[in-house]
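Researcher: We are triaging several targets before committing to wet-lab work. For this one, the compound of interest is zinc ion. I'm pasting the protein sequence and the ligand SMILES. What I need is the predicted three-dimensional arrangement of the protein with the ligand bound, expressed as structure tokens, so it can go straight into our comparison scripts without reformatting.
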Amino acid sequence: MKICTQNELTYTPTSAECSVAAPFNSFFRTKFLPGFGLLQDGGVRANNPLAIALKESNKIWPSAKKNDLLLSIGTGVSTSGCYSVPDASNVFCDGSIPRLIRATLSSPCMDGEQGFVEALNYLPSDTKSDIFRLNQVIDGPLPRLDDVEKISSMLDLSYSVPDHLIRTILASAFFFFELDDEPVKRHDDFLCQGSILCSRGDTNIILKQIFLEMPNAHFQTARGQNLGGIHGNDGCSLCGYYRKTVRFSVTNVDEMTSIEIANTRFSHKIGGFPKSAQELLTEQQSYAHFGRADHKVAQWPPSRVCYCSRATKRRIQFLEPSLDQKRRKV
Ligand SMILES: [Zn+2]
């Protein structure tokens, strides 16, 4: 048996041929790989990869107890997909083969929309508010995969993204919180000090969108402690690095809390919440004073420098004498 080399497997056209072939050779032909056999479109096995995505995210972020946002995107759903029930039994419609075909086509393996609905049954109810599905409703039967003439008429279809989803993405996909120090025990609570940070460098664009979607938005805790307004001047105006220092209290370090972006009408959690102060300390590896076991660069206590400062450091390293010069000096 010949096994393909890594190069053969990662060769893009080969990978594409392996992944797009429909089962009946009507669109693209299947691809035979020595050592693997005949390969075809994985959509036949898992048309909606929601379960696969959840499993993979668990591998990538093992400490995350839940996902901030899960967005499933469909390729179109027909309004006329329902089977109309006839008045009398008809062998051509109700025989075993037609029933098998209908069952297959409407099963989660072949119908992505059905796959999404059924996958939701296996998820905890408290996670469903962070799961969204976008799909284009199409009147009449769905066009064939290779019906390119339909593309021009489909361009005119309106495609809308719910405002709720936009606000959720703005809050949970771009902003997160880190402690800057260990919580301080006070008389009857703990004071947490930390930074709300943005995962992107183009903060101004994100802030503008937040002001548009949620006028007068501010940060607050789940208990309603106001953490201050959202301003463009939090951070560095030169490079777009965003950092808003905040303080809030929790009754104990195991209390589950959240930081939200909110105004009088809406509130949306930023990334990573709900979480306790103890979980934040553990995730930031505050106990690893001599270096983290996973060798990540994050330090405790965290050093907060904007992208300008990081670029300066890089330039200084570049201007150092080359290794040859150093050896000569020795
Ligand atoms: Zn900067």
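Researcher: Any quick observations?
Model: Residues 190 and 250 are 5 Å apart (CA to CA).
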